What does this fold into?
Amino acid sequence: MTTLVMKFGGTSVGNADALTQVADILLAQTREWDRIAVVVSAMNGVTDALIQGARTAASGDRQTYPKILSELQARHQHAVDQLISSEGERKDLWSTLDQYLDEFATLCHSVSVLGEVTPRAMDAITSIGERMIVRILACLLRQHGKRCMAMDATELIVTDAKFQNAVPRMDITRERVSDRLLPLLIDGVVPVVTGVIGATEDGITTTLGRGGSDYTAAILSDCLDADEVWIWTDVDGVMAADPNLVPDARVIPVLSYSEVSEMAYFGAKVLHPKTIRPIIERDTPLWVKNTFRPTGSGTQIVRDPRVADGKIKAVTAIKGLSMLTVEGRGMLGVPGIAARTFSAVAGQGVSVLMISQASSEQSICFVIPSPTVSSVVQAIEEEMALELARRDIDRVWSLDDVVIITAVGAGLRHTPGIDALIFGALGRASINVIAIAQGSSECSLSLVVAAEDAAQAIEHIHREVILNG
Ligand code: ADP
Ligand code: ASP
Ligand code: MG
It folds into this structure.
């Protein structure tokens, strides 16, 4: 028995033409695979619109969310009108969609009364986009004669109660999937499952974080022991750089799990960073493909690509960051400074993106999202009050407007001198590197540069090290 899990992103289901394309892809694959499960994101822009509705409602604005509601209604209804030929089915779908939109209005109204939107309310509100689209796609596939069923992942993926960034509890999720999803697949039904959503054990809706539908596909693939996972998106595959920043970036034919993990973690939006975790445990081949050019070869992601060409394959960037430095001569040889620094950071619920310590032990530098800087500096100053008073630590300071640029490729592990190519490219462009860190997987090298240098740094690394390297 062969099992395939396919996930379609927001642009792939963004209008009637795209949905028709998705249906064609699905129908073609149902002839090739015994069992197919489908995961779908909300139409592109819908999650953002729902968030905007919630936020404006929280600020007391009761005009914006009804406008958003009408736009969402028009957009979804338009797709339904273009796609669904039976009048009865169309009316049923309209009224189902209206129920979700009513729920959106009710939730936004409550938020406006309370004057705040809690993470829990935000998850309930943002889940609506996915709940609507799965119903439309399932109806379209039925019209093509395919037996299928729209399903809310709240029935399948059980998570903790960390709203907006929930962590799945794989043991219970596995049971749910084998009780509720597997029987459908065995019966030849194609389930069309909402991406990004889960629920606590008590059934309260949670989400796995922005862009989390890729992760949903990986979780289901793990629970179903799928043979392959295909992520369908709006570009030809994983590219050597963000195509919005580097228009001539090419598709990378094959990547390893570690390489793509580094890329996703360090800013390549094409895959959610957590996607690889469930996939890697079962060695499931993962493909990234373009919905709008389905015959293209896409990117294949496996454990050990046979072609190890010893090169840098990609460059990524994360913007909106600050670099914090804790420095002082009295830190030399004193155990525990780093541990206390990072526990103060963790106490603020902030995760550190990159760390670099000068070998003189006189400073620790790390990079965090800019909006968290003031609370983190305060927490460290409180933790180190004694050391600051004794002048063992001179100061805790931040450098704002920095970007992490990461070069990724297994070549970093195997090929001596590859780092020199990167620094050479930056040197020729007169770009100052503020800090450096090499990932422990040895397939990434991260550099901190000023935000104003980021675009040039990416372009030079792409041109001199990837294209001509
Ligand atoms: P989806 O809705 O299909 O999940 P996303 O917008 O989340 O799509 O991810 C796909 C987008 O990621 C692409 O349209 C592209 O703009 C962006 N992207 C950023 N870096 C890369 C990269 N290295 N390779 C491919 N796409 C990238
Ligand atoms: N629709 C969700 C988002 O925009 C999930 C996803 O696209 O993966 O974050
Ligand atoms: Mg995405």
About this structure: Residues 87-114 form the longest helix (28 residues). The chain has a mean pLDDT of 95.
